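Table S2 (text version). Query chain:
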Amino acid sequence: MHATAFRYRPPVNPVAAATVEIGKVVVSVRLSFHGDLYACRRPPGVVERVEAEALDLLSKGLFVSGIDTPLATVTGTAGHRFVQETAVFQPTDRWVYRGTCGVGASRNGLTLTGMLGYRLEVRAGWARRAGECGPPATAAEWCEFFGAQLASIGGVVLRRASVLSPGTPP
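Corresponding structure-token output:
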């Protein structure tokens, strides 16, 4: 049986994202990957279509919890293994978590394998109804202003966010 095999590089843009408003706070979560995966499709298919299928498989069932802590947890139904390496506060409105993600997923004849780097960005800011509140200047202020709302969220389901090149089927 023939197959289409190639290196798959996820888009530079976020692969999955979500925005949640709770009380007077708006939280935005964005996940992006960097690196290459090995992709194999049996039976063979058009590479552009296989790339769309790969993006669907990579972004399937992504869930983020612990966004109020220095150790955010990322999971995915495709069986990705996320290992966080760093968490850095970027004034005035975001934490950026970085790490590695082991991928070994298959669906409908498509198999993705390899190791990617990931970047998880969690932004928090005041919603319009919060009025004229100043932005936090430090990580401690950010946690003081937004920590309770972030903790009450529990977790966020991310949805596929990347746009493929024009003409590529979703």
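Notes on Table S2: The longest strand covers residues 110-126. Helices lie at 47-58, 139-153.
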